[in-house]
Amino acid sequence: MAMTPEERGRAAEDTVAALRAELARVGVTLPSLRVDPLTMAARAPYPLVELGRCNLDTAMRLVAVLREAGR
């Protein structure tokens, strides 16, 4: 069953919050993590999650966490 535009918006925000929480749990913060507002502005929104940019230390931490998770 397809989601309504409102449900898609809520799901996007909930997913960003969950992703932020899980990343924080493993010591990673993506400061620009958000729902892309332009993708929510359409009549039939198709939200994209913007991971944004991060500094080198954060990128290295993310690589380490992903490598560990892959073991």
Automatic annotation (TrEMBL):
It comes from the Bacteria. This is Uncharacterized protein. It comes from Streptomyces longispororuber.
